[in-house]
Design brief:
Length: about 425
Amino acid sequence: MFHTLIALGLSLSFLLSSSLADSTPSFKDVLSSTANLSTFLNTLQNSYPDLLAQLNSLPSSSPVTILAPNNDAFAKTVYYPVVGPAFSNGDEAAIQNILIYHVVNGSHSSKDLLPTFQYFPTWLSNATFANVTGGQRVGGVLQNGKEVIFTSGQSTRSRALQADIAFAGGIIHIIDTLVTPPTSFPQTAELFDTTTESFQLTSFLGATYYSPNKTVPALAALLNSTSDVTIFAPNNAALEVVNGALADLAKNPSALAKLLDYHIVVGNGGPWYSTNLTNATTLTTLAGETITITSASNSLFVNSARMLTSDLLIVNGVMHVLDNVLSPDDTSATPVPSLATQVPVLSQASGVKASEAPFTTFMPWNVVTILPAAAATSGGKSGYGQGSATTGYGAQATGTGKVGGGAGRVSAGAMGVVGMVVAAAVML
Ligand SMILES: *[C@@H]1O[C@H](CO)[C@@H](O)[C@H](O)[C@H]1NC(C)=O
Ligand SMILES: *[C@@H]1O[C@H](CO)[C@@H](O)[C@H](O)[C@H]1NC(C)=O
Ligand SMILES: *[C@@H]1O[C@H](CO)[C@@H](O)[C@H](O)[C@H]1NC(C)=O
Ligand SMILES: *[C@@H]1O[C@H](CO)[C@@H](O)[C@H](O)[C@H]1NC(C)=O
Ligand SMILES: *[C@@H]1O[C@H](CO)[C@@H](O)[C@H](O)[C@H]1NC(C)=O
Ligand SMILES: *[C@@H]1O[C@H](CO)[C@@H](O)[C@H](O)[C@H]1NC(C)=O
Ligand SMILES: *[C@@H]1O[C@H](CO)[C@@H](O)[C@H](O)[C@H]1NC(C)=O
Ligand SMILES: *[C@@H]1O[C@H](CO)[C@@H](O)[C@H](O)[C@H]1NC(C)=O
């Protein structure tokens, strides 16, 4: 009897110590033992079993961080761009791309995150969603010293409800909103039109489609199908204030093209996220002239333009919003950081500030937009967009009445409306 007890004790301690030595659960173990992750597990099993198997047998030498959406996150996908249509249409290829975007290369625990954003490469590399060298990125930040936040396409914000769950291949953060694979430049620029002024980009977007001779606009085509682009996009107010100068420039399409090209950097080592931009960085633009970054007073400036919003992720790179139009004829403009608004570099010789953003009649057509009525949030909450809680996002139509019109701005009314707005475009 005594011997049996000793033997039992020994084998118990043997079992304990061997299980301690190898105690980190597998990926599947964590998912199946966490009630809130059952939809994530089912979705992986049904739509991407290969990814599940791969994550379950990762070599410890190359850990990953899994952003694991909880069941509530999957239940609200209908309100979100990209992920909403993918799930409601049962588009398995798109679902696979979405799932793999939740795998972040490297181990990024909450204590490794910084109070400023970092942009981490993910495993999403399909060029439809990730025409960027090194894999599509997600932003990660530690806010208020405790909140773990990830940002993705269309400024989607995902909050970790539970961080740092160890598994054999790395760590898992349980998030409250799926990360959204970035959309194209036009789709991303359209989205923000109805939100705060610092995001309004339809004027610049329209300018890239400017085509008085009705040919496919070269810049718009390039921005759609070139990898590793960085777009420094002046907001609508910035274009409005120099409307007269732009109208003069537009009389000479190649001068306008050069001005627009001066806002674009292609390649040059990959997309330039804000974390890559430090004081005195110079970048050669598509126009051939260089721009200079200045870091001062907690802001980044491009020449003399202040970066109002940084790091809007797009399929093929990243976009930063400026408060001033840049000019390739004034490459040495420097900011006055103490001024809230920088002095325009284009001289407004003719014309006055426009009451409407110029070039918007050239915006692309067939813009399909999801209206995330229930999901639109303001500021701190998780969700899609940075807008106010009362207005949704809609495609801004471009009709001027010349060749038919377009649907007007669509406001999100009923909760859960999935609005598909096909605006009749008017290419003059
Ligand atoms: C990339 O994703 C698209 C859209 O989801 C899909 O049609 C295509 O087959 C994918 N390409 C590859 C190489 O997996
Ligand atoms: C992930 O990081 C490893 C190094 O830790 C690197 O070898 C690999 O190429 C990276 N993979 C992706 C998809 O970024
Ligand atoms: C788990 O689900 C419950 C019920 O929806 C929710 O209140 C809780 O915040 C979730 N926890 C995590 C870590 O997702
Ligand atoms: C049409 O305009 C574009 C620039 O907007 C220019 O590149 C192209 O050469 C023009 N084509 C013709 C036929 O004039
Ligand atoms: C660019 O892509 C958008 C969205 O996919 C599309 O609506 C637009 O027609 C494209 N424009 C060009 C010039 O290729
Ligand atoms: C990605 O970029 C490459 C190179 O710039 C381009 O040739 C290709 O068409 C782009 N792919 C997509 C899907 O836009
Ligand atoms: C930006 O920084 C990341 C690391 O933070 C680096 O991997 C990448 O190469 C940098 N890109 C450029 C264009 O310098
Ligand atoms: C930033 O760079 C500029 C040159 O572009 C230089 O004059 C200035 O001293 C630098 N500021 C800091 C804080 O290093």
